[in-house]
Amino acid sequence: MKKKRVAILGSTGSIGTQTLDIIRTHHDKFVAEILVANNNAELLIRQAIEFQPNAVIIVNEQKYDFVCDALSKYPVKVFTKPESVEQIVCSENIDIVLAAIVGYAGLKSVISAIKSKKTIALANKETLVVAGDLIMRLAEQYQSPIIPVDSEHSAIFQSILGEPNAIEKILLTASGGPFFNIDDKCIEKATKTDALKHPRWTMGKKITIDSATMMNKGFEVIEARWLFDVQPEQIQIVVHPQSIIHSMVQFADGSIKAQLSEPDMRISIAYALNFPVRLSLNSKRLDFSKFLTMEFKNPDVQKFPCITLAYEALNKGGNAACIMNAANEIAVDAFLTDKIKFLQIAEIIEKTMTATTFIKNPDINDYIATDTEARKIAKELIT
Question: In terms of domains, do 104 and 210 share one?
Answer without folding.
Answer: no
